[in-house]
Amino acid sequence: MTRLYDDPAAFTEDMVTGFVAAHPEHVRRVPGGVVRAKRARKGKVAVVTGGGSGHYPAFCGVVGPGFADGAVIGNIFTSPSAEDAYSVARAADRGAGVVFSFGNYAGDNMNFGLAVERLQREGIRAHNAVVTDDVASAPSEEAGRRRGVVGDFPVFKVASAAAEEGYDFDGVVRVAERTNERTRSLGVAFDGCTLPGQDHPLFEVPEGRMGLGLGIHGEPGVSEREMPSASELAKILVDGLLAEAPADGGRRVTAILNGLGATKYEELFVVWGTVSRLLAEAGLEVVAPEVGELVTSLDMAGCSLTLTWLDDELERLWQAPADTPAYRKGDAPSSGTAEDDDELPEIEREPVVIAPAEGQRTAAEVVRALDAMAELMREQEDELGRMDSVAGDGDHGRGMTRGSGAAAEAARDIAAQGVGPAAVLVAAGDAWAAKAGGTSGVLWGAALRSFGDLLPDDRPAVGADLVAGAEAALAAVRRLGRAEPGDKTLVDALQPFTAELRAAVGDGGAEAWRRAAQVATKAAADTADLRPRTGRARPLAERSVGTPDPGATSLALALTRIGELLGEREEAA
Amino acid sequence: MTRLYDDPAAFTEDMVTGFVAAHPEHVRRVPGGVVRAKRARKGKVAVVTGGGSGHYPAFCGVVGPGFADGAVIGNIFTSPSAEDAYSVARAADRGAGVVFSFGNYAGDNMNFGLAVERLQREGIRAHNAVVTDDVASAPSEEAGRRRGVVGDFPVFKVASAAAEEGYDFDGVVRVAERTNERTRSLGVAFDGCTLPGQDHPLFEVPEGRMGLGLGIHGEPGVSEREMPSASELAKILVDGLLAEAPADGGRRVTAILNGLGATKYEELFVVWGTVSRLLAEAGLEVVAPEVGELVTSLDMAGCSLTLTWLDDELERLWQAPADTPAYRKGDAPSSGTAEDDDELPEIEREPVVIAPAEGQRTAAEVVRALDAMAELMREQEDELGRMDSVAGDGDHGRGMTRGSGAAAEAARDIAAQGVGPAAVLVAAGDAWAAKAGGTSGVLWGAALRSFGDLLPDDRPAVGADLVAGAEAALAAVRRLGRAEPGDKTLVDALQPFTAELRAAVGDGGAEAWRRAAQVATKAAADTADLRPRTGRARPLAERSVGTPDPGATSLALALTRIGELLGEREEAA
C-alpha cells in the first residue's frame, strides 16, 4: 500500500516537487508537468508523453536528451487536464510541432485531444500517437480499442529517438505509429495497490490466484487462474504474444519484462531466464531487452511481457542513446544540448471581451447557477462517492466538488471583468477540467464550453438558446466520451434531458427545463438496471448493477437545481 | 511476497541465469557470481562487491566499467561461501590485487575473510573494506560493530571509481575506508518480505506502525512507533543522521533516499521534497543525490536515508562515470574497455598428495563418519528447521542437510584418490561451506578443516589427536564466529565437549568422545534457558528463550553419532 504522504489530495504535487528537486540536471517544472532542464535545439519535433501518475518511471522519469521533451503529469491513475497537456506542449515546442504519445484511455484521449485542437488553433502542429498494445483488452479485430500499457515505453522511445535524430513531424508520427502497430503486451497481476490516504486496495486478487490480462489500474482481464510457477508464467506470456505476432513481424524483436512495483527484479530475472529461452526456441532474436520496472502501478504485484517486432529503422532508434532520470543508454546524445534561448515561452491568456449590459446580466445568472451547483455538490460529495465506490474508485464526489468549485470561482472572477455568458462558461469549463481532472472533469468542462458558446451576449437568453446549448453540450460529451445511451454514463441523463427540453420548449424555458430535469432524474435512476457496457469497469463491475451511475446522477441533480433557479427568475420577472 | 519461482532451492541460481541473459553486454558468469563482460585493463585494482542476494540492484547490478569488477552472489539474505568469493576474485583480478567491499555481517566477514587469506597465500593482494553505516545497529562508540546497509553503495562507488582512475591498492583501500567513515544511514520498515517458497514473512511490522532502525533482514532496530506522515519521517531520518555527523564532515554531502522494494518512487519523491529542504536548512549542500531503489530487500516496505560527507576527492569519485546494468552515470568510462586477453584464468585445484596406507585407513573412517552425519542430518532436517524458526529464518535444517551431504560426497571422491584424513576433511569442509552457505556453513567448514589438519597421515589417530583436533576446531569457530560461551550458538556445545574430551582422554579415545558428547548434548539442551546475546536475533528473539539453540543441538547430535562409530571401531578392533 502507499503509506508515505502528507496531504493525500496534494500527493502528486508533492511528488513532482521532490522529483524535480532530485533531478534538476534533467527536468524543470512547468504548469501541468515537467520539460527538459535544457531545451532541445530549435526546429526539433517535440515528443511529449503523459498520463496519470503512479507509474514511475513512466512518464516523467524518461524526460531528457534522446527521450521525451516533456511529460504531462496527472493525479494518480487520473488523466491530466487538457490545460496541463497544452501547457507542457507549449513549453516543449521548438517550432516544429508536438507529438503527444500516451496509452489509450478515455480520459487521456479526451484531454490530449482537446490540447491538440487548441495547439492547432494557435498554428502549432500537434498529433496524438495513441498506444494500444494490451492484447488482453480487446480482440485483434478491434486492436484500436486496446488499452496502452508498457507498449508506451518503446513507442515513446522510438519516436523520441527519431525526433532527436532530426526526423520531421510526419516522420516522427510515422515511426510512433509503426512501433505501436508492431508492439504487443500481456500482463498479469497478483495483488492490488492502495491509493494514498485510502484504506482499501483499488482491487484485489485472491491469495494464490493470478489475474491474466488484468489492467494496470485493475481493469478486467481475460481470466483468473491459479498462481503458476515462474516458467509456466513465462510460457503463458510468450505464447500469448506470439499468437498475436504481426504478419510481417520478422525475426528480430525487443522485449520488456516489466515489474508492476512489488514483483521484484530477482523474480523478473527468474522469469526472464525462461522467456529468453522460449523466444530463442521460437526463432526470434532478442535485441537489447529490458528487464525491470519501467511502467509500474504503485506497489501492485504483477508483471507483463512486451514484444516489439523490429525493422532496421526501429532497431536503430530503439538502440539510440538516451539520458533521463530513470533511463540511460549509451553516451548522452549531443543533439539535445542547450542553446542560449533557454527561457520558456509565456503562455498568453485569451483576451477579455467586454459584453453589452444584457450579456453581463446573463453572465451574472450563469455565475449564480454555478455557485448553486458548487454548493449542491459539496452537500452531495459523500453520497456520490459512495455510489461511485461500487464500481469505480470512489472519487466522483470529490471530483465533482473540486470541479464545480473551481468553475464557480473562475466564473466569478471573469464575470467581474464585464464579459458575457460565453466567456464565463469557457473559463468555468476550463477551470473544471483543470482542477477535477479525469473523465468527468473533461466532459463537464467541454459541456460548459459548448453550452456557453450558444448563449447570446446582446440579448436575454430564451428557451431556444437553452435547447441549442444543451444539444451542443450533448454533442461535445458524446464526441469526447464516445459513450452511447445505455453505457451507464452521464449521457444516459443528458440525452433524454435534451430531447425533452426540445419537445417542451414551447411552454417556456423554465418550465421546459424543469420537466426535462425530471426526465433526466428518472433516467439517472434507471441506470441502476443497466449493466455497464464501456468505461473503466473493474472486476467488481458486476456489482454495479442495481446502483445508479454516479455521473448521470450528479448531472440530474445539477439540472434540477438549475431548473429551480430558472423558475425563481421567471417569478421574479 | 516473493511469488515467482520454480524450485525455491534454485531461486538464486535461476535469478543469476536470467540476469546474465538480460545483460550480456555488462556481465558474464563465473562460479560464485559475475564479473564484467569485458575485463578491465591489466594493472587495475579489482573491486569486488557481494553478499547475500535479494537486494537488487545491490550487488550484481553494479558490475561494469566505472563500478565493480565483480559481484559475489550468495543465496537470498545468506552470505556467499569463501569459495565463491575466492572464485570471483580470481576472475576479476588483473594483477594489482582485489578489494572486497561488503556490509558488516558475521557470515560475510567470515567468508570474505577466508577468501582474503586464500588469495594472500597465493600471492594476490586482498583486503576487506567492510561497510558499517547503520547508526541504529550500535552506538557511535562501537561504530565498527554497526551493520552495513545502503552505505555499501557510496563505498563501492567511490572505491570503484578510484580503481578506474588508476589508484593503487592502498589508495583504493584508503578511499573505501574514508568513505565508510563519512557515511551514515538510518532506515525504517513498514512491512516484511517473504522468501521464495515460504508461506510466512521473515518478520512483521504491525499495521499502522513503523520499525525505526529495523535492519534490512528484520534485525532489531531502535524502536517501534506509529506510522508518521511523509514530512515527519523526513525529519526523523534527517535529525537521526545529523546527530551522527562526522566531526570534520564539512558542508557538502551526497544523499541516497533508498526504497526497500514496495515503497515506491512516488512516495520516495514526496519524502525527498522535505528531506532536501531540511538538509538545505541545516546548511548542507547536496551533491548528485540518488532517490530510488539501490539496496532493496525483496518487496519489503520501508526506506532509508544515507548521507556521505564529501571532500573534494570523494566528490570527484562519486560523480565519476559508470556503466552497469542498473546504474549509469555520464558517458561510459573508457578506462574500463576490453583488452585482447579476455580469457578468464583457470583456477588450479590444490594438488592431490597420496597418503601412506595408515592415512588412507583413517581417511576411510572419516568418510564413514561424514556419511553417517549426512544421514543423521537428513533425518533431523525438519526438527532442526522447526527449532530454528522460533528465532531464526528456519533454514538450519536445510543448511545442515545440504552442507553435510556435500561434505560426505566430496570426502568420498577425494578419498578414492588415496589421500589422507587431512585432505579429506579439507575437501569436506570446503564443500560444506560452499553448498550450505551462511554462518553455520562457514563454521562447520572451518571446523572440519582445522580438525583435519591435526590428524596424522602415517599412523592411526589416537585420543590425543582427537583432543588436538577438537581444540583447533573450537579455536577456528570462535575466531570466525566471534561468539562467546553463553551466546546461544554452537560454541555452547563445542566448548564443554572439548574440555570434557581433554579431561577424559586418559580413558581411551572412544570412551572419552562418548562422555564428551553427553556433556555437549546436555549443554545444547541448556541453551534453552539462555537469552541470545549476539547473532542475527530477530524482533521475535525473545521467544527463543525456552527453545534450544539449533546449531548447538545439531552439533551435539553429530558428536554423539561419531561417538557411536568410534565405539563400533574399538569393538571391531
From TrEMBL, chains A, B:
Entry-linked PANTHER family: TRIOKINASE/FMN CYCLASE, TRIOKINASE_FMN CYCLASE
Residues annotated as transmembrane: none
Domain DhaK: 7-327
Molecular function, one GO term: kinase activity
Descriptive protein name: Dihydroxyacetone kinase family protein
Record organism: Saccharopolyspora griseoalba
The keyword ATP-binding is annotated on this UniProt entry: yes
Every DhaL domain range: 364-564
